[in-house]
Amino acid sequence: MSHENFVRERRGVLQLLKPHHAWYQNDEDERPGSLIRVLGGTSGNDVNKRLHCEKMGYAWNELDNSDEKWPSVLPGCLYYLQVESEGEMIDCGSHVVALCRVIAMLADDSVKDAAMELDFLSTRKLRQMGIISEFGRIAESTC
Description:
By secondary structure, this protein is of the alpha+beta class.
């Protein structure tokens, strides 16, 4: 659904997640990846992602910015980037690449220095945690 929406609207929001997003906040076993599996491993056509995120302690919210209209987003992200597609999308087989222009950006107010900016949930970290595969797809759950 995200892909369909982006192709149709030619704009969207990128949310740079923090490491805490890899952990299910309400899970006593602290299994990694529950939120990531819902967001990246399911389709909004089949699953109510907003409801699942809320149940995991990540209720979507509105950003406080009167200048721009933003969709609901996950709380506690490092950065929120509002982007707009430039030119045609490029089919690369298993993925589609879109070159985008950043229209607006909001940052987490708690970021105090460059070291904190580097503490984000990268695909490298997700691979190391076994949440995604080497090809960037949701990995089989071992839990």
